[in-house]
Structures
1.
Amino acid sequence: MRKFWNDRRGSGVVTAAGVVFLLLFFSCALMEYSRLQSTAAHTRDALQAAVVEACTEQNAGLYDGVREGYSGGYKRSGGNWAESLSSTDIYDRLDKSLGTEKSGDAVVKYAGSDVNFRLSGLSAQMTNAPFAPDGKDTGQLTCTAEVELEVPWMFHWDGVPPMHARLTVKAGYMPKF
């Protein structure tokens, strides 16, 4: 019996199998981390593009006298000038660039039948420059948007909660020269 326990022939097969398993596990974890990071970066870039489009869209309503001040739209209402910024649907712009589908109060991107990522809680705010700046605060037409990103794990690690990130982007209107 002692000879059986001291005989080490074939033990390298078990060690090699263990090493291969660990390498596969770590490479899967590394690929999943890379997927999460690239999904967040791609979504942030798409949100940034949608916000830039929303700010640039305001160009049509610019008041001629403040074009160089990068102000948004103003219209004459009665005897006064009133701010006139159009509200745009940034979710629609995200749907076009990301290929998402509306699902309740969120938009979802599917990978086959699995959820690739989910966007929810979009908030966007347009801030206009003053119509008659006082010289100290000339301001600029800006749009700030925030959205909640949820990316579940794809390697069926059900015990691991999905990645949650709050993406914030800011864009300003700058005319072409």
Note: The CA atoms of residues 50 and 93 lie 6 Å apart.
2.
Amino acid sequence: MFYQSFEFYQKSLQAWNPFFDLGRNLLSQSSAFYPDATMNNSLKALLEAGIDLTKPYDKPQFGINHVVVDEDRFHVRETTVLEKPFCKLLHFEHTDGLERPKVLLIAALSGHHATLCKSTVETLIPTYDLYITDWIDAKHVPIADGKFGFDEYVSYLIEFLELLGAGSHIIAVCQPVVQALIATAVLAKRKSPVVPVSLTLMAGPVDTRINANQVNDFALRFPREWYEQTLIHTVPFGYAGAGRRVYPGFLQLGSFLSMNLSSHIEKFQRYFQHLLNGEMDFVERHREFYDEYLAVLDLTEDFYMETMDRVFREHHLPTGVMTWQGEFVDLGAVTETALFTIEGADDDICAAGQTEAALALCKNLPASKKQHYIQRDVGHYGVFSGSKFREHIAPRIIDFIRRSH
């Protein structure tokens, strides 16, 4: 009933949106309501804010149609090259015909859509033949399509790499650094020809015992049963995935917001002041961020609980007990894939040191193939988006892949 109750609340809130929109349009067409300019601007700002607070936040689109390389502009075509029940593999195809290294960008499956990496994609497209995992909201996946858990996630990555073929590179952002590392080890142990040439791990939970923060503490605070009973709910009727047990995206969003509530309140206050002043450039940047940030998806119960157990509660990877399809994962098999770990000094979701741990775990990988970088003055999202990503982190990734290729 909890999921249904939230749905009712959300739709009740959204019902007000047309009235705010009507009021704004009427006010824009006539100043007769309040001849006083200050009062008129204040009322318009309130209506604009009301529209933003009551609108539905649907899955955003990448909408990347062109890129500029060396001052030359050419088109990019987004296509789906493989569609699985829980993920689409998207390809950003260049139309200039030039050959570029293939890169699989693995977006996180942790509540937000892959479009959270739009800035990452835009930065990397000019240099690479880029593919990205576009995870599907579990509430839209029928129960008949089966389960999706931790092992299935790794299997998807292996299948994607087999599709890309030999000579490919991986960049994993946040949550999937663990699965990317496992997939690489599995392929290395098999001596597969599609073992990635390089693996870049960005701000992910390889070993959450290091510099444990409130995210890690929360995962250990209660017995396992509490998380199942409190955080797992059933998708209501009206969705293709009705009856599927999920960790709802709105719960994950609530936890994200609560971690930095004062910061979000300050941002809203600045946004409202910009509305009052008619500074629409600032308003649009605010909206662009929150249109993405507030759009969330559901995770399957299997994937959420297995990730909670293996990564955050029992630390399977750093303690050497991680398995995939019943077999132990041997990180010692990784001997050829160049490994680059990247962290943000101010990351409050994945603390500094947790991703770097991968370097020591790949004990048989030569030091010459290992690299680490920590970016000062950035939090979690700044590791893969924003000015410091574009100016400092992306050039290092590009140079790393160039030297590895």
Note: The chain is about 45% helix and 20% strand.
